[in-house]
């Protein structure tokens, strides 16, 4: 209010968001309470409310420049952060039959927020516009 909304300069942060992630080994694990279904909700219930949908047989609109990076780099260094910052649970680390981790992309749930494109510490994810009119659909908005 000091300048009445006309501040004569702009504050810039030169460090990109993807370079600001702390290593998992230096971070404390946060135990969030379970969603109560009244004020807090699990991710997939919220994805359901968004009515998001993409044609099943279209190419994945989330492109990894190097498909090995989620397991070889992001998992050991950052505990693969895409599992957490994606609001739709699109990125999952699943265990294969032999116990080794595998990176799975559930692109059909994508809410088009583009967080993964911005936040991936390796800048390995490119969000592309999906085919057709796929995506979230909030009919009551
Ligand atoms: S654009 Fe958003 S919702 Fe879609 S995969 Fe990336 S982080 Fe998840």
UniProtKB/TrEMBL annotation:
- Keywords, in A-Z order: 4Fe-4S, Electron transport, FAD, Flavoprotein, Iron, Iron-sulfur, Metal-binding, Oxidoreductase, Transport, Ubiquinone
Give the matching InterPro entries: ETF-QO (IPR040156), ETF-QO/FixX_C (IPR007859)
Indicate the segments forming the ETF-QO/FixX C-terminal domain, all copies.
37-138
Q: What class of enzyme is it?
A: oxidoreductase
Q: What is its EC number?
A: 1.5.5.1
Q: Name one GO molecular function term.
A: 4 iron, 4 sulfur cluster binding
Q: Reaction catalysed? A: a ubiquinone + reduced [electron-transfer flavoprotein] = a ubiquinol + oxidized [electron-transfer flavoprotein] + H(+)
How and how many cofactors are bound, per the record note?
Binds 1 [4Fe-4S] cluster.
Cofactor(s) for this UniProt protein: FAD; [4Fe-4S] cluster
A Pfam family (short name) is: Fer4_ETF_QO
Q: PANTHER family attached here?
A: ELECTRON TRANSFER FLAVOPROTEIN-UBIQUINONE OXIDOREDUCTASE (PTHR10617), ELECTRON TRANSFER FLAVOPROTEIN-UBIQUINONE OXIDOREDUCTASE, MITOCHONDRIAL (PTHR10617:SF107)
Annotated function: Accepts electrons from ETF and reduces ubiquinone.
Name assigned to this protein:
Electron transfer flavoprotein-ubiquinone oxidoreductase
Q: Per the UniProt entry, what species is this protein from, by scientific name?
A: Azotobacter beijerinckii
